[in-house]
Amino acid sequence: MRENFEELGARLPSFADGLLVTIQLTLGGGALAFVIAIILGVTARSEYLLVRGGARAIIEFFRGTSLLVQLFWLFYVLPLFGWRLESLVAGILALGLNYGAYAAEVVRGAINSVPQGQWEATTALSMRPMHRLRRIIWPQAWAIMIPSLSNLFIMLLKGTAVASIVLLQDLTWLGGQLRQATGDTFFAYGVTAVMYLGLAMLIVLGAAALEKAAKRRLGQGAAKATKPSAAAASTTVGG
Amino acid sequence: MEDEASGIWNWDRAFAVFPELLEAFLQVTLVATVVGSLIAAVVGLVVAMTRKLAPAWIAWPVHGFMEFIRMTPVVVQLLFAYYAFNFDPLATGIVVLGIHYAAYMAEVYRSGIDAVPKGQWEAATALSMSPGRTWLKVIIPQSLRTVVPALGTWVISMFKDTPFLMVIFITDMVRRAQVYGGQHYAYTEAITLAGLIFLAASYPTYLLMKQLEKRLARY
Fold it and tell me: Transmembrane region positions (chain B) (predicted)?
């Protein structure tokens, strides 16, 4: 066991590099997913059939075709069209597109679950559509969608582990290296898993703080922590 | 222009690789999904009931372990199990997928059990039903009806995670596509077809689940 920790200690700098790759994939993929989710989530509610249909087709395509297929497509197929992507960029794109499509459903569900009266009030005040969405609807939808989005963000973090397949030296890859060096599977992947767990915990804590802040802005106390509408939005996750 | 177009998508290659992909789909992807979800559905229910019924010194470690499984990547779990147990790779992979998704399904079952109205428990007590009978005849049937759609979405999720099995050297459909692409230096057809096969299988299932959800919501 002592040799194991000595080996780990000697490898700490490279683990820091691997951690950095995993964090880059998570934050990059997460940011892209968030932007895509808002665009697709809002357009999927459009009153124009063509816009709505387009958004739905994109969402279903990226939800339905498996993360690894999308990653391979970006990594192996795009270069044949003359676009050679770095592994890290391909990874961020695949994660962002895949989880963005899932998150779009969360955004759509959360906007839908803002009470009808709020929409009617904005009409009564003759607010312009963008103004209405930004000032009235979004702050309320945002508080509803945070728990589901944080679940998806954790799934995205775990999804980054496929990066080692496209030759990225991330945490999972380093776990494999540590296993070969120590010959101790339990230790090597135990350390790796605990590192992922630590990152996931950071996301959980961050999301809890965000949710609290969003609720405070709406004047809702901590007593009304989870509304039934939040549960309704989360059932759309995963399909 | 014409030549370039045929270079991007070659139908001969598409037809050549399609049967190979379909074979891998049936032999690996489908088998892993079906057996894996059965394991997940059973283990998930047992875990959810453990939290309700077992004494704290059993319930807490089980809950903690499942939380750990849920919060760490399935790829790391696959690698760990493959090297730690030195067992048949496909069987190992299926069990790992099953236990990973059991952690999610346990949460689904838990919400379903919590959603059974309190009056049902009280009625069972009033009729002096034994705890076993209460669970089997009253609680589980009612909670199953509400959780089936949510379980279904996790099955679809697992289905799309089966390509991760390639990290433990199982030649699934996507790995087959990658190998074919490498041999012919032509990835477009193989990888695109693999994605389309996933889409063709998962989208109708998703629609079916949605329909089922609507129907069950009426009760």
Answer: 24-47, 147-170, 190-209
